[in-house]
Design goal:
- The structure is a homodimer of 168-residue chains.
- Chain A is mostly helical and 168 residues long.
- Chain A has a domain at 27-143: Winged helix-like DNA-binding domain superfamily/Winged helix DNA-binding domain (Arc Repressor Mutant, subunit A, Orthogonal Bundle).
- Chain A is 60% helix and 6% strand.
- The first copy, chain A, contains seven helices and two strands, in the order ααααββααα.
- The first copy, chain A, has a two-stranded antiparallel sheet with strand order 1-2.
- The longest helix of chain A is centred in the N-terminal third of the chain and has 22 residues, at 19-40.
- The two termini of chain A are 38 Å apart.
- The interface between A and B is large, with 77 and 77 residues.
- Chain B binds a DNA duplex (23 and 23 nucleotides) through helix 4.
Chain lengths: 168, 168
DNA sequence: TATTGTTATACTCTATAACTATA
DNA sequence: TATAGTTATAGAGTATAACAATA
């Protein structure tokens, strides 16, 4: 394990290998693989997050949903338009406050959710391969720490509450 | 630690919280934060990776460089065009094989490298906050495992060799 | 005026396909 | 024909700014 925290070989002025670089790149690889897995199930990461959040709790409005997904309102509208066109969601005005669009899953949306959930779970199983529960617990803790450090000064990531997942 | 590996609360049909989701999202947060840090230093992740790889070793051609950065050749050309326009790199034909473009850093490119390297190191320090060396070692190992699992069936990420960083 | 959401527009990163130039 | 790289084009995801509708 003496290879960790090493320096880059062959660099004129040696400097420590940034853990942030390793992390960002591992992140990229995992994100791409996850995206690909979702793609094979007919979805994308934002679509999956939107479906998941709709299932988790009916958000009061699109602003809340956008925050939960981690995008701006206009970006959410962009995705909802596409999902609407695909017949996955419906948007109806709230009778009590007609400014509010109530987003709901259609039957096709429910089916898409199930497909993407299964894909996410399968990806998860693949990702866990060879890792003990204790490793995963450690990883979760460390990732939480990193996310907190990365987001220092910014709002905590919206899914932080999900990650804590108050188990019952 | 009983919160780990829990289930999502408030979901009609409870299903395990995918670690892949947590990971992809942590990844996203870290990647965004890293991008922002690089942005404040006048760069982006691909630009930083290109500069880093040019410093690490003069790649024989652009195909090698593209692979090291993790993009296609055309995408690399895209970035090199921009970097060329900014005066960070020069491209000159190899006399021995005039099909080959030899990419070199200009003085401004060297300066940009230093700025981005410092930004990456600073980001790294911020990311490490509160983590012991042993934690980082564990994290690196786990991330390596995940990257390997995520990339199962695909080519190993080009920076894998970097991550191993044969320490001297 | 403040809130909710959409539209218009644009930027970045990425990719594929077709092309040029060289070998 | 094969290789190195560029150009042209496109698409996904994101963002900001301006706008409309409602409160």
């Amino acid at each position: 394990m003496s290879m960790l925290g090493g320096r880059l070989a062959g660099v004129p002025a040696p400097f420590p290998l940034p853990v942030g670089l390793r992390l960002a790149q591992t992140a990229r690889a995992v994100e791409r693989a996850f995206d690909e897995a979702l793609g094979e199930a007919g979805g994308t990461l934002p679509v999956w997050l939107i479906l998941l959040n709709l299932k988790l709790s009916k958000p009061a409005n699109q602003r809340e949903l956008a925050e939960a997904v981690g995008v701006r309102e206009a970006t959410l509208t962009h995705h909802l338009n596409a999902m609407d066109a695909r017949g996955l969601v419906t948007r109806t005005r709230d009778a009590a406050n007609r400014r509010v669009q109530v987003v709901a899953l259609t039957e096709a949306g429910e089916a898409a959710f199930v497909r993407l959930r299964d894909a996410a779970l399968a990806f998860d199983a693949r990702l866990r391969a060879g890792l003990a529960d204790a490793d995963l617990a450690t990883l979760t803790t460390l990732l939480g720490h990193l996310a907190a450090n990365a987001g220092a000064g910014e709002a905590a990531p919206p899914w932080a509450s999900l990650a804590e997942g108050r188990a019952e």
